[in-house]
């Protein structure tokens, strides 16, 4: 998992975006499947990586799936 500070350059659609393009890509260590985190928690998952940009599927997308484990019950 890469830990890179990045900036969003595109939102699709505006409002509650489903896909967000970031200004970092493969040359910055971003890989397909990487989680995208903010200071508040999970924002989404990287679904496309190019040399200088990457696209992630946001948690607002109906296609987003996340596996979780409850720390209390396992």
Question: Please, could you describe this protein's structure?
Answer:
With 74 residues, the protein is an all-beta fold. 0% of the residues lie in helices and 36% in strands. The protein contains no helices and five strands. It has strands at 8-12, 19-22, 35-38, 41-49, 54-58. A five-stranded antiparallel β-sheet has the order 1-2-5-4-3, with no helix packed on it. Strand 1 (8-12) and strand 2 form a beta hairpin. The radius of gyration is 13 Å and the shape is globular. The two termini are 23 Å apart. The mean pLDDT is 85.
Please tell me how large the radius of gyration is.
Answer: 13 Å
Count of helices?
0
What structural class should be given to the helix and strand makeup? mainly beta
Say how many strands there are: 5
Order of helices and strands: EEEEE
Low-confidence segments, given as residue ranges, are none
Spatial arrangement of strands, main beta sheet: 1-2-5-4-3
Query: N- to C-terminal separation?
Result: 23 Å
Query: What is the general shape?
Result: globular
Helix content: under 10%
The proportion of strand residues reads 35-45%
Largest sheet: 5 strands, antiparallel
Give the overall pLDDT as a whole number. 85
Question: In a few lines, what is going on in this structure?
Answer:
This protein has about 70 residues and is an all-beta fold. It has strands spanning about 10, 20, 35-40, 40-50, 55-60.
């Amino acid at each position: 998992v890469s830990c890179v500070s990045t900036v969003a350059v595109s939102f699709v659609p505006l409002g509650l975006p489903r896909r967000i393009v970031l200004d970092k890509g493969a040359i910055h260590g971003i890989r397909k499947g990487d989680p995208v985190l903010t200071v508040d928690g999970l924002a989404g998952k990287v679904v496309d990586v190019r040399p200088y940009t990457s696209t992630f599927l946001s948690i607002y997308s109906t296609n987003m799936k996340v596996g979780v484990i409850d720390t209390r019950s396992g």
